[in-house]
Amino acid sequence: MIREAICEGADVEEALEKAKAELGLTETDEYDFEVLQREEKKRFGIFGGRPAKVRAFVVEPDEVEDKDKAETFLKNVLDKMGVEGIEVEKVLGEGTMDFNLSGDEEGFVIGRRGETLDALQYLTSLVANHGSDDYIKVTVNVGNYRDKREKTLEILGRKLAYKAVKTGKKTSLEPMNPYERRIIHTAVQKVNGAISWSEGENANRHVVVGPDPKAKNNRRGYNNNRRGGGRRGYNNNRSRNTNPAPNPDRVPLNEGGATGLYGRIDK
Q1: Which of 31, 124, 126, 147 has the most CB atoms within 10 Å of its CB?
Q2: Residue 31 CB: number of other CB atoms within 10 A?
Q3: How much is the pLDDT for 143?
C-alpha cells in the first residue's frame, strides 16, 4: 500500500517539509519523493513565477498477507452478494487451497448447476495466484456438492454411452466447463462401442456422445435378423449385446486436466 502527499512551496525544501508533515513523518521515518515542478522566480518581481511541487510517498506492507488475500476476497464477495450466515473454512495443502462453505443459504451460493460456485472458485483462484510464480490449485465447495455433481455426471455419461450403442444415435449435452466435460469423457470412453467429443466455442462448448464408428454395430445385425423373417432362436436372443461391458483400459479425452476446475488460469 502506498501513502502519498503532494504539496507546493516557495522552493523544493519547503514543499517537501509540507508533504512530510501531511504524512505524519518524523526525521527517522523512511520515505521517497519526486520533484514534480521546480520553483520559478517572477521576472522583474512582477511577471510569471511558480511554486515548487513535490510528491512524497511511503510504501507500506499490505495489511493482509498473501496467503490470506484469497480468503479475504471470497468473504468480501459473499458479503457483497448479501449472503448471510455462510461460514468459510480454509484448508491449506501442498500447492492447494480448499474453501469449504456452510450455512443457511448454500443453494444460493451454488447457483444453477453450480454456475455461481464455479464463478466464485475461478475468481478466488485468480486472486490467490496473482503475482505468484507457484500455481495454487483453489477449490471452493459447499458441503459435498462437487462429489455429488461428479457422481451424477459419471452416471449420465455411462447412461448416454449405452444409449448410443443401443440406438446408434448421438446425444448433445448442455454446455459445461472443461472439468465437467472431462468427467463425461472419462465415463463414456470406458464403454465399448461409444465415443464422445466436444463441440461449440467458449461458454457454448458441450459434449456429444455417440456410437463408435470403428466398433461392431450389434444393433444393425439385430435388425437384419428381424428382416429375415421367422422367429429368432433362443440363443440368438441371448447373444444380443444391449449393455456392453465397461472397458477400463480406454483413455478418456483430457479436458481440464488435473489442475482444477478451469486448469491453470495464467495460460
Answers
A1: 124
A2: 16
A3: 83
Identify the pLDDT of residue 165.
93
**CA–CA gap between residue 61 and residue 42 (Å, rounded):** 43
Q: Give the C-alpha separation, 267 to 249, whole Å.
A: 30
The neighbour count for residue 46, using CB atoms within 10 Å, is 7
| Strand-strand pairing, 96-102 and 87-93 | antiparallel
**Distance, CA of 148 to CA of 183 (rounded, Å):** 12
Residue 69 is predicted with a pLDDT of 87
Q: Quick one: cell of 33?
A: 519523493
Domain 147-239: CATH class, spelled out: alpha beta
User: Mean pLDDT for each 10-residue chunk of the chain (267 residues)?
Assistant: 87 92 88 89 73 87 64 89 85 89 83 87 89 85 87 94 93 89 93 92 90 71 45 47 51 48 40
CA proximity to 256, closest of 167, 168, 162, 150? 150
Q: Do the bridges between strand 137-142 and strand 96-102 make them parallel or antiparallel, or are there none, so unpaired?
A: parallel
- Name the CATH architecture for the domain at 66-143: 2-Layer Sandwich (3.30)
Q: Nine-digit cell at 214?
A: 470403428
Residue 228 burial (CB count, 10 A): 8
User: Look-up: residue for cell 480448499?
Assistant: 98
Q: Which grid coordinates are listed for 58?
A: 511511503
Contact 247, 192 (CB under 8 A): yes
Helix (H, G, I), strand (E, B) or coil at 218: helix
